[in-house]
Amino acid sequence: METLKEILAEYNLPARARSCYQCGACTGGCPVGRIRWDFNPRRFIEMLIRGELEDLLLLESIWLCSHCLTCLERCPQQIEVSEIIMHVKNCAARLGNVPENVIKMADLIMNQGWIDKPVKRMLKKRQGLGLPEQPEGIDSEERKALCRCLDWSAKMKAFKTGKSGGADGRFPVSNNKKGVRERAS
Ligand code: SF4
Ligand code: SF4
Fold first, then answer.
1. φ/ψ (deg, to 5) at 38
2. What pLDDT is recorded for position 12?
3. Which of 4, 18, 146, 181 lies deepest, with the highest CB count within 10 Å?
């Protein structure tokens, strides 16, 4: 079973954040930070630098990042905050710590190609713009092949029945918050 140390070594996270001088420009421009007080990219980077890795992986707020890249545009040190957060999410997922709502959204995308079908008003707007009722690719063979490749149904079944482990190195399968600490040794 993978340990937290091994996973972090693969992503080299603390080293990527080292040149941050905590100016806060990333947080100042972050659209998520404007509506959620507990979403603070500067603080996430600080936690990495200070070695508070386990605590960072347990934060549900990291899952709110929309990866819009505004932080990268604003950072005077060109630190790839968005990419770092993506890797933090990957680490958390590999250790089995993924919020239930994130897994539900992923399940919808894997099964139907999107989270929510467009409402009537949106359909009308699409029609007015000469667009098809749904974007190309929603029903694509690629999506179905991806589901098969990831053995998605089995993973979801394991998640729903609570029989998933989470440290298979490849996919979010559990929202067990104790997971990180248990596997951190
Ligand atoms: S903008 Fe860059 S240097 Fe400033 S706090 Fe954010 S990551 Fe650090
Ligand atoms: S990529 Fe994430 S952290 Fe950066 S500005 Fe966008 S939402 Fe905020």
1. -85, 5
2. 79
3. 4
Amino acid at 165: G
Residue 161: its pLDDT value, please? 67
Predicted local distance difference test score (pLDDT) of residue 73: 96
How far, in Å, CA of 24 to CA of 21, rounded?
9
Q: What ligand has the least distance to the C-alpha of 89?
A: 2
The predicted pLDDT at position 164 comes to 52
* Predicted local distance difference test score (pLDDT) of residue 136: 72
Say how many Å lie between the CA of residue 76 and the centre of ligand 1.
Answer: 7
C-alpha separations of 29 from 44, 56, 162 in Å: 15, 21, 39
Identify the structural domains of the chain with CATH numbers, from first to last: 4-94 (1.10.1060.10), 100-183 (no CATH)
Q: Which residue has the tokens 């009722």?
A: 133
- Residue ranges of the chain whose pLDDT lies below 50: 165-185
Tell me which of 22, 49, 65, 85 to substitute to probe ligand 1's pocket, judged by most ligand atoms within 8 Å of the beta carbon.
22
Residue nearest to atom 2 of ligand 1 (CA): 75
